[in-house]
Amino acid sequence: MRNLLSMEHLTNDDVMMIIERAAQFEAGELPALAKSYQVANLFFEPSTRTKTSFEMAERNIGCTVIPFDTDFSSMIKGETLYDTVKTLQMIGMDAVVIRAKEEEYYKELLTGIDVAIINGGDGTGQHPSQSLLDLYTIYKEFGSFEGLNVTIAGDITHSRVAKSNATALKRLGVNVRFLCPSEWSGEFEAHHSWDGLLEDSDVVMLLRVQHERHCADECFSKEGYHEQYGMTFEREARMKKNAIIMHPAPVNRDVEIASGLVECERSRIFEQVRNGVFVRMAILETILKGR
């Protein structure tokens, strides 16, 4: 692993290697980097969890985090992403974590660039580090993937989390089902009601309704969505005994999930945030050791 761009590029062995290393970090094992590396985080879309989680992970494994403010970079003046990353390479950067609005923005960086590229989210394409932390969360809970039923519910067409997880979970032997309004299914075949999904789901993974990616004049009712597709108290009560609720966050409370369920016993929403630091430590260490 010299870069992390898409879950489609990882094998099952790659995934399990990251999961096992994340577990070692969570157990208190120290990082194994021979030197300190220089890393910058280029986030061209808003982020709380991913950006700060990467920054914490970078510091935890001994990296020097070089501040980069996208609002005051030369890209505002018209500089290309390639030229920006090439400049950071020549200054001495070893790796960059990038979130951008454009899908597959990283393709222009695969030739002529000699820093590690870690995709922190590309438009509505992929979000591999989120997928890996979701997989780690599921693995910690169940000890395996084979034969699990995972229902992914919400704004499928705009969700890089759904696309990343669908790729990885299916390859690991998980039965993945999708639930969403018909106009939000995108490339996936989806259910449009909870019938036949809820009672046998081991994991219900809720997705944020991405209001910023919908047309401004689109009619949307928060109450109507919650009633038809959200995790209500009544639906939570029907879930199987050991099933868990996940959400990549940020959460629209009382839209995707009732506010009182965000921290309920079966919710792993904030545990996912915690797990993300260990997983990103594992990602960074693996990539930097390979350079």
Number of helices: 8
The helical percent reads 25-40%
Number of domains: 2
CATH architecture of the largest domain: 3-Layer(aba) Sandwich
In this structure, how is the largest beta sheet organized?
4 strands, parallel
Question: What is the strand tally?
Answer: 8
The CATH class of the largest domain, by name, is Alpha Beta
* CATH topology (fold) name of the largest domain: Rossmann fold
Structure description:
The chain contains 8 helices and 8 strands, in the order αβαβαββαβαββααβα. The chain is α/β, with parallel strands linked by helices. The protein folds into 2 domains: 133 residues, Aspartate/ornithine carbamoyltransferase (Rossmann fold, 3-Layer(aba) Sandwich); 145 residues, Aspartate/ornithine carbamoyltransferase (Rossmann fold). A 4-stranded parallel sheet has the order 2-1-3-4, with helices on both faces. The protein has a 4-stranded parallel sheet with strand order 6-5-7-8, covered by helices on one side. Helix 2 crosses helix 8 and helix 4 packs across helix 5. The longest helix is centred in the C-terminal third of the chain and has 21 residues. It starts with 11 loop residues before the first helix and ends with a helix. It is an enzyme of class 2 (transferase). Pathway: Pyrimidine metabolism; UMP biosynthesis via de novo pathway; (S)-dihydroorotate from bicarbonate: step 2/3. Belongs to the aspartate/ornithine carbamoyltransferase superfamily. ATCase family. Its EC number is 2.1.3.2.
